[in-house]
Amino acid sequence: MSRPTFDNELDFLDNDDTISRKTSSPFLNNSSSSSSSSSSSSSSSSSSNLKKKLNQLYLTIERYTLSTLRKLLFFFRKNPLLKFIILVITLIIIISVTHPKGKKSIQKVGYQYYNTIYGSKEVSRKEDLLNIDVTQKLRFKNWENSPITHQMRHQDYIEDELIGYVSNLDLKKLNIEKDNDDNDNNGHGHGSKKLENEFHKDYDTLVKCEDLQYTNIIEHSRWNKILEDDLMELRRDLRKNDKFLGKELSSDNEKDWSEEKIINEHWMRFGGSSVWLEREQCHVMFSRIVYTRNGVRDHPHVSMIRAQAFDKDWNELIGKRIPYNDLIPHKDIELEIQKLDEELGMHSCDHLKKDKTLYETCVVDNTRREMEAKKRKEEILSQYFITYPTVLDIKYNTNGDWKGPEDPHVILRKTDNMEEPLVIFNMEDDEEEKRRVFSFMPHRRNTPLIKFTLPDASRKFKEKEKNWAPFFHQTSSESAFSRGIIYFIYSFSPLEILKCSLNDGICEMVFEAKTLDLSDDNKFGGMRGGTQFVPLPELLPHVKGKQIWVGFPKLHIEHCGCGERFYRPMLSLLVESNGVYHQELAVPDIDFDMDVLSWDQKGTHCGQHNVLSPNSIDSWEVASQTSHPKRFEDYMTLTFSEADANTRVIILRGILNYILNMYKEKDMMENFEVSKKSSIIIGQTLKCVVKQSKEDCKVYGDAHPEPKEN
Question: What is the pLDDT of residue 388?
Fold first, then answer.
């Protein structure tokens, strides 16, 4: 008998006797048949009993199911509103699963749910970060918005063995290890007592670089890409449209030169820094462009900051518009632009195609006014949007040389409601006539430029300020009337931290060398600002009472065996607890197995300068996590430059594992304690870092000797 359809379900279920009789008859017939068989043969008795029991079980299940279904349908018939609600919910789920936007909504809700669970969760110790499980949260991540692409995950990677040095060892555990070593070697040990008694006078001989050394693997992509710019088009645009810079971009000796020669000899492009904007789905990069009248690259007349936008695959986006975030946005920007086109007479002629005469007249009319209309349109839109590529609108006194912004670096400022790039650079201040550090907010229309000042009478800025490394506190409060606070690593060795307002630029020194009473052994000018410092990926929980940042400072040492000056990326781990800042790890130098472009750009030899500079951490996200053992698949996009002449982008994999495994492999103190021992502890680590960097410089120099003069 065929089962009734759902439309007749209620009437059908009202006749209970009919149901029982009709549905059970097949099983009863089987049962009778089995009984007849059993009477004819005793050997099949057990088989017959088994069939009887199965039939009875089937009957029981079916009766229970039908009875439950009947009650539910009766309940829905008595409660039509509930029936309607359940049907609507079911329909919403079906639409959400099948429709792309619905899928994104479910992903967003799931991600926010797990973000609430893991985002608010704290772990007690840094080592506990190795044991967290983030797989549930990753399942709901919307990968369409992520900078991680299929290409990034499936390209070739090359292993790098990074040697770093820690500076916050647990000396008690180190004592035990040395005692054990003494016992193994001598049968008795006095290492622990010696360490305690001679700590102050003999720390550097008791704690060797091998005790502080931490070695592990990261990977870098075989792929890296040079990010280009069209300087010829830039020059044409500035000379034609920029009233401020246009008049500064020519000299008498260029009169008979070709445009190509002018670009090759008088225009230079330095390293670029980029960040990923999730909401805009693009990378934005800021580079220094130099115009020099005498052809000497470190003697510019003026400098400017060039802004470019790139898609996920690092193809440049020409005409990318991003609305200023301090203006009231329109709900439908495309519709408003369409209305503006119509107002300026830039409407489409497609609706006139049926009438050939009217259509051709419309096209001719549009062509005639197109240039003027486009110019007016761009002028109007520039009040509401920044359009990439462009040059940042930074004004300064152009009298003389070495004018304008230099060494731009970028950091992403992110709140619950918005994200924006913040460009940090140095420039000669027209008022003080000294080089000062500034910030520029390119996605703000109102007062985007801020100069940082230090009004404290007890501490003054130097004549030339540069190489500050920016970072944001994760606990910074938000206000509709404030742009917030930014922090800078003002000096690495000794470590000093600035806290500055983004509203008026007023700064205060919140952590100084005198806080730890550091000796001259802790002074090293070869560690300078490179990239910004960023927190660990956001899906990781916080460590109770601590903040952790990762960055790439720039190693700058002289006469070490490779030219006059040797620049390389370093890796640094910065930790803060109760206002005390500490560099917990320093990797002396990283070169990604590259033969670095020489300063004269004619080879890879060590010449005047050998420069590989870290510029910015563009993005850092986790793609997956394995269970046994727990390891993260994390990807960091880094921009760097060679010889101050090009900008490259490269992908690093495994930075997060490198950092977290340090806490498993090295016996680290959970907190850095300010004491009389601080100067000795930090100083010993610094000696190891400097020693290693000089050795690596010499090795590179021996492998890349400077060509002999003819």
Answer: 98
